[in-house]
Design goal:
792 residues; alpha+beta; Jelly Rolls; 2 domains; 12-stranded mixed β-sheet; 5-stranded antiparallel β-sheet; globular
Length: 792
C-alpha cells in the first residue's frame, strides 16, 4: 500500500523539519469526521438517491477459500467456485455510477440485477468554483472526442433545494477514545477537525492550509446534470468547490525579489520529497511570470464530496493544449500516508522513480494532472476507509465532476472529462475502487495494488506481522484519521495472532474485490515480483476477473513494489514507457501507439519477456520429491528466514521496503530440485505437497524457494502453509506465491520449509514438526508458448 514509500517520505520530512520528537510526544487521535463547512449554503440543480432497503452483498469468489483450505484428500483446489455457506459476509450496500445511465454500456454488463441499493441518502451538492473558472461548454466539437469510445450521456435538469449535511461521526470503540472524540468534537465544533495540540510542524502547516480558504464559493456549472438509474450511485452533477489562497503566495508577486528569489525557493521545495507537498497550502505553487496571459495556472481547491467531507485537490494544467485550448486529464493517486504530490516538473516520482511516472512527464506529454489528499489523511476531512468504493471511490467521482467545469479540461461530453488514472499502492487501489463505480474514467494503470486486504494481511490465517507493523506506523506518524477499528485489527493480530471475525468482515466490507468485474476502463496492471505486501497473486486475481468480464487488460510483472529488488539493478524504463503508451492510446486517443502484448514480465536476471496471452499456457511441471524424515523446532527468528542482509546495500528506502524479505534459513527442511537440462522458464505458482506430523500450538509453517546460484529466495517470498500439530500424520497441498525465474542448463533451486520467517514473525508459536515427505511442482511454459524477449 505504498507503506515503505510512505514511511520513507515521512521519515525524510521528519529529518528535514525535526518533527520526530513532537510526533512521539504529542500525536493525538483524530476520530471525528469532517464537520459542516462554514461557507454559506448555496442552492442549485441536483439529484438525490432514494432510500431503499438493504440487500445482502454478493459473496466474493472462492479464491481465498481455495487457496487457504485443502480438499478432503488434502489437496488445495484451484478451480473457480462459490464460497461455502459457512463463509458468510456482512450485509453491505453498494452502487455504481453506471454506464447505463450514460447510455454507453450494455445493461447486462454494467448493472447487475441483484445490485444492492443505497441505505443512506447521498446528496450531490451544487457545483461551484472560483469565479475565474468558467463553465465548460455544453457542446464539445466532434474533433476533440475519441472516435471509438465516446460517451453520450442522457441529460436532464432538476431543481431542488440542497443543504449540506453534517456527516455522522465515526463510532469509537473504547471509553478512552470516546472521551477523546467528545473532547475533539467540542473543540472542532463549527469547523474542520482541529489538530493535536502538540502536533508536529508538518501538521501545523496542514492546519494553516485549512485556514487558508475563507472566501465564499461562487456557483458555476450548475446546469451539468446526468440522469441516474435506480440501482446506481447518481453521477455527481455538481460539487461545492473553493479555491485555496496560500497566505505566503504574495511573496512571489513582489517585483524582482518574487521572480528571482521566492519563486525559485518555492520551485525547489516542490522538488523535495514530501516537503513541498506538505507546505503547498502555505507557499502555493511556483508562479511563472513569463507565461502568456490567460495560461491556466496550477491551483489547489477544496472539493466537497457527497457527504459533506472536504477533499484537498491540486490541479496542475498541461504544458500544451489542443486547438480548443483543452487537454485530457490524469488523476495521480498518492500512496498510504502521503499527501497529493505537487512536484510539477519531475519526470519520475520523487520516491519511487522506477515505479511511478512523474507529474512533469505527464504535463509535458499534454495531460492535466490532478492529485489529492485522500479522505482522512493530511488536509482532507472525513474518516479513512481504505479506498472503499462507497467513500473514497465516490470522492473521486466528485473530483471528476468538478474537473468537467474547468475550461481547459477536454470533455467527451458534458460532465464527462477525457480522463485516466495512475498511482501506486494506495494510489493503485483507488483506481480500481473508482473505476468500478464511475465509468467516465477512460483508462487506469493500477501499480502494486491489491485485490483482497484480508488475504494480504492474514493469508491463510497467518499474520503478516512485518507489514502489519509498518502500515499502522505510517498512519500514526502522519496523524491519519482512519476508521477506529482498523488499528486494533493490526495491533491484536501482530501481538497475539488473533483477530475478531467481525473486524475481518469490516475490513473486507471496505474492499472492491467483488466489483472488479464492473470495471470497463482498459486496465494496465503492474505488479512487483518482490512485493511482500501485495504479491503477484493479487494482480493475478484482478486480471482474471477483468478478463472474464471482457475488459481490455494487460499485466506486467517487474522487479519492484513493496520489497527490495536484490537480483538486478532497478530500471524503470519499461514500466514508465508502458504507462505512457497506455495513456496515449486510451486517453489521448492516439491509435498509432501500440500497447504491446497482453503479458510482459522480467526474470531474476533483468531479462524481459512477453506473451500474447495472460495467463501463459503451462507445460510439463518440474517435479521433485524428498522422503527422508526430518524434525525441526519452532524457534522465533533464530535460524529462520530473512531479512536478507543484502537489503542494506541498496539504499535506505530499499532497506525499509526489504525488511519483510525472505532469506536462506538454517532451521529448515530442504528439498533439492535437480538441475535443469535445458533453458526453462518458471512462471506462475509452484505447488507444494507436504506430509507431516507434530506437536505444539503453532498453526503455520512457511515455504520458500532458494536460487542455488545466488542464494536469493525467489521473489524474496515466503508462503504460509497451515498445519495441525496434534500428533497425527497429515498431508496437504498448497500453492506458493507466484514467481518468475529462468533456469539455464545446469542451474537448480532448493525448496525450504521453515518454522519462522521475518514476514510472519511471532513469539506465541511453539512446538515441533516432523516432515515425512515433501513434493514440489514448478510450473513451466508450454513448449508452444515460449516467450519473446523484448527490449528493456
Amino acid at each position: 500500500m505504498g507503506a515503505g514509500s510512505c514511511v520513507g517520505r515521512v521519515g525524510g520530512l521528519a529529518v528535514a523539519l525535526g518533527i520526530g520528537a513532537a510526533v512521539l510526544a504529542g500525536a493525538g487521535v483524530a476520530v471525528a469526521d469532517e464537520g459542516a463547512d462554514s461557507s454559506p449554503t448555496v442552492s442549485a440543480p441536483t439529484s438525490q438517491t432514494a432510500k431503499t432497503p438493504e440487500t445482502p452483498r454478493k459473496t466474493l469468489k472462492e479464491r481465498r477459500a481455495l487457496r487457504n483450505k485443502p480438499s478432503a484428500e488434502g489437496t488445495a483446489q484451484n478451480t473457480d467456485g462459490e464460497k461455502p455457506d459457512a463463509d458468510t459476509r456482512p450485509v453491505r450496500t453498494r452502487h455504481k455510477l453506471s454506464a447505463v445511465a450514460r447510455g454507453t454500456e450494455p445493461a447486462a454488463k454494467a448493472v447487475k440485477a441483484d445490485e444492492a441499493h443505497d441505505t443512506a441518502e447521498a446528496v450531490a451538492t451544487p457545483v461551484v468554483a472560483d469565479t475565474a473558472v468558467e463553465s465548460a461548454p455544453a457542446e464539445v466539437p466532434a474533433t476533440v472526442r475519441k472516435p471509438f469510445w465516446v460517451k453520450t450521456p442522457v441529460l436532464t435538469h432538476q431543481d431542488s433545494e440542497v443543504t449540506e449535511q453534517d456527516p455522522e461521526p465515526a463510532r469509537v470503540v473504547t471509553p478512552l477514545l470516546d472521551r477523546i472524540a467528545a473532547k475533539r468534537a467540542a473543540a472542532d465544533a463549527g469547523g474542520d477537525p482541529a489538530l493535536p495540540a502538540l502536533a508536529s510542524l508538518v501538521m501545523s502547516v496542514v492546519a494553516a492550509g485549512r485556514e487558508a480558504t475563507t472566501d465564499a464559493p461562487a456557483t458555476v456549472g450548475s446546469e451539468l446534470t446526468t440522469s441516474q438509474v435506480a440501482d446506481s450511485y447518481p453521477i455527481p452533477e455538481g460539487v461545492t468547490v473553493k479555491e485555496v489562497h496560500p497566505p505566503l503566495f504574495w511573496l512571489q508577486r513582489i517585483p524582482v525579489l518574487g521572480t528571482f528569489v521566492f519563486t525559485p525557493i518555492v520551485r525547489t521545495l516542490h522538488a523535495l520529497p514530501l516537503v513541498g507537498d506538505a507546505l503547498q497550502p502555505i507557499i502555493g505553487f511556483p508562479l511563472n511570470r513569463f507565461d502568456p496571459p490567460g495560461t491556466p495556472q496550477p491551483k489547489s481547491y477544496w472539493v466537497t464530496s457527497f457527504d459533506g467531507t472536504r477533499i484537498f485537490v491540486n490541479v496542475m494544467p498541461s504544458l500544451k493544449f489542443d486547438e480548443y485550448g483543452q487537454a485530457p486529464t490524469v488523476l495521480d493517486g498518492p500512496g498510504l500516508g502521503l499527501p497529493g504530490s505537487t512536484s510539477l516538473a519531475l519526470q519520475n516520482d520523487s520516491l519511487l522513480p522506477f515505479d511511478v511516472i512523474g507529474i512533469g512527464r505527464l504535463r509535458e506529454a499534454g495531460y492535466n494532472v490532478v492529485t489529492w489528499d485522500p479522505r482522512g489523511e493530511w488536509r482532507s476531512g472525513g474518516i479513512m476507509h481504505l479506498d472503499s468504493p462507497d467513500l473514497e471511490g465516490r470522492d473521486v467521482s466528485h473530483i471528476i465532476s468538478f474537473l468537467s467545469t474547468l475550461p481547459y479540461v477536454k470533455l467527451d461530453t458534458t460532465n464527462d472529462p477525457r480522463l485516466g488514472m495512475v498511482g501506486a499502492s494506495y494510489g493503485g487501489g483507488i483506481q480500481l475502487s473508482a473505476a468500478a463505480i464511475d465509468h467516465r474514467i477512460d483508462a487506469i494503470v493500477p501499480t502494486i495494488a491489491w485485490n483482497d486486504l484480508v488475504d494480504v494481511l492474514f493469508p491463510r490465517g497467518a499474520v503478516n506481522s512485518a507489514w502489519g507493523t509498518l502500515l499502522p506506523a505510517v498512519l500514526v506518524l502522519t496523524l491519519a484519521r482512519e476508521h477506529p477499528r482498523i488499528l486494533p485489527v493490526a495491533v491484536m493480530g501482530v501481538l497475539f495472532g488473533k483477530v475478531k471475525q467481525s473486524d475481518l468482515d469490516l475490513v473486507e466490507s471496505f474492499g472492491f474485490a467483488d466489483q472488479i468485474k464492473d470495471i470497463t476502463a482498459p486496465t494496465l496492471l503492474i505488479q512487483g515480483t518482490v512485493d511482500t505486501l501485495f504479491p503477484l497473486s493479487q494482480a493475478d486475481a484482478n486480471a482474471k476477473d477483468l478478463l472474464a468480464a471482457g475488459t481490455t487488460t494487460k499485466v506486467i510483472w517487474y522487479c519492484g513494489g513493496h520489497g527490495a529488488c536484490l537480483s538486478q539493478p532497478k530500471r524503470g524504463e519499461v514500466i514508465l514507457d508502458r504507462t505512457m503508451d497506455w495513456l496515449n492510446h486510451y486517453v489521448m486517443g492516439d491509435d498509432t501507439v501500440s500497447t504491446g502484448p497482453e503479458f510482459e514480465w522480467t526474470d531474476q536476471n533483468g531479462e524481459w519477456y512477453s506473451s500474447e496471452k495472460y495467463p501463459v499456457d503451462s507445460g510439463t511441471p518440474i517435479i521433485a520429491t524428498e522422503t527422508k524424515p526430518k524434525t525441526i523446532p519452532f524457534i522465533p527468528f533464530l535460524g529462520g528466514s530473512g531479512p536478507d542482509p543484502r537489503i542494506l546495500f541498496h539504499g535506505p528506502l530499499q532497506t525499509l521496503l526489504g525488511i519483510a524479505s525472505a532469506g536462506p534459513a538454517l532451521n529448515a527442511v530442504n528439498l533439492k530440485v535437480p538441475a535443469a537440462q535445458e533453458l526453462t522458464h518458471i512462471v506462475g505458482a509452484p505447488e507444494l505437497t507436504l506430509t507431516y506430523s507434530g506437536k505444539g500450538n503453532a498453526k503455520h509453517v512457511y515455504a520458500q524457494i532458494v536460487d542455488d546460484k545466488t542464494g536469493l529466495v525467489l521473489g524474496t517470498q515466503a508462503t504460509a502453509i497451515p498445519v495441525t500439530l496434534d500428533g497425527a500424520t497429515h498431508e496437504v497441498t498448497f500453492s506458493l506465491e507466484q514467481v518468475a525465474h529462468t533456469l539455464q542448463p545446469g542451474e537448480s533451486v532448493t525448496v525450504q520449509l521453515v518454522t519462522s520467517t521475518i514476514k510472519f514473525l511471532n513469539f506465541y508459536s511453539w512446538g515441533r514438526i516432523t516432515v515425512e515427505g515433501m513434493t514440489i511442482e514448478l510450473p513451466t511454459l508450454a513448449t508452444d508458448a515460449q516467450p519473446e524477449t523484448i527490449s528493456a
